[in-house]
Amino acid sequence: MTALTGEALALARAEAQEAVRRVRAACPRLDGAAIDLILRDARSHYAWTDKPVPRDLLETIYDIASNGPTSMNCCPARFLFVESIEAKEKLAKSLKAKNIDKMMSAPVTVIIAHDLEFWKELPFLFPHEDRRPHFEGKPGHSEVTAFRNGTLQAAYFMIAARAVGLDTGAMSGFSNEIVDAEFFAGSTLRSNFLLNLGYADETALFQKLPRFPFDKACKFL
Questions:
Q1: Which of 54, 140, 150, 197 could form a cystine bridge with 114, CB 3.0-4.6 A?
Q2: How many structural domains are present in the chain?
Q3: Whole domain around residue 184: which residue ranges?
């Protein structure tokens, strides 16, 4: 545990508050085009060009996404980038037939997973106090926390990928059990979903499907 105390803590808090003020002053909100790119007009893609995705761009995406909030800064998500033909063939064992071509043609497929023993890293990630007793010996609580926060981190990752110019295509038509056996055997990692990344072939797109209006999905109490 390396938590700051006293004057050092006060200085760090003041610097953090000023940093947020600077960010807000520089960019009070994203413009419409940026919002369209990352969410409003973004699409899930199923076909891909052969343009490669540089590894340094994947590192940039992770660096952006890792700054998204999680409870107690627990950061349980883990990202396995599947690029080689051999690894993709192994991953194909888990997929429903209709998803194999989508995955094989993507430059990169990310197995988005979470670590069930994320809490062992809390002394580094959350040094203010020892929160490990909240999870140690409580596998159910640990699993729910890892899944919830890992899914949050996966959403940050998708938005970050779109923000730097990549297209995304999430997939859930696969066997988590097979993925875990093939890629995470003997570890505390468990797969959540798959994410294809690359530069899309837009000719495979169909019309955008409906979304609920505000009054259908939202209420005030």
A1: 150
A2: 1
A3: 44-203
